[in-house]
Amino acid sequence: MLSHDRIWSALDALAERHGLTASGLARRAGLDPTAFNKSKRCGADGRDRWPSTESLSKVLGATGASLDEFMKLVQGDQPVADTGFPDGAFPPQTGSIPLLGFAQAGSGGFFDDGGFPAGQGWDVVEFPAAPSNRPGVYALEVQGDSMMPLYRDGDILVVEPGAQIRRGDRVVVRSRDGEVMAKVLNRQSAKSIELVSLNPDHPNRSFDLSEIDWMARIIWASQ
């Protein structure tokens, strides 16, 4: 059956077969690097987005895969990974999600272009079924007291990249300079965002969108 989930899972499996992330597969096919990111698979209105036939044709040409091979992946005749991680770094585990410290999150190689987990070096943490069943969800461990009094050192924040973000939501933001911060979204325009600090001892921040690598909503916190 040509379902939305199976088509995207087949693309993920094809990328994994070639040691690529979804972004890497898109680049190899000559497409926008974010074309296959999980954040692009649903529209802002919640409707499913499907890859175009032109995109699929370019992917098959770039990987040397035949249409028959791709359809076998779609039909599930071969193992299909839907972990969001290259090289099988994170096999599916019920109730488990990838975990990374805030200090490490600012380093390169841990996220793809859409802000989804990628690469090696992640730990794994057990979490309730509701967050863990959402595609791309991961956890960040608070380090230090910069987020007091709301979040303490050692607290775990569950983050959902690609989720719709509204004013007043608590978010994790990564700048293109590698700075990672947890803030409250105060305002977002077509060109900039304004963030309110969780700690009154730390200033509020404003950024041009060109300065932001990605922003993801915090959906759960251990406290």
Automatic annotation (TrEMBL):
Task: Cite the Pfam families for this sequence.
Answer: Peptidase_S24 (PF00717)
List the SUPFAM superfamilies.
Answer: LexA/Signal peptidase
Keywords attached to this Swiss-Prot or TrEMBL record, sorted alphabetically, are: DNA-binding, Transcription, Transcription regulation
Top-level taxon in the UniProt lineage: Bacteria
Start and end residues of each Peptidase S24/S26A/S26B/S26C domain: 98-219
Please state what the protein is called.
Helix-turn-helix transcriptional regulator
Origin species: Hoeflea ulvae
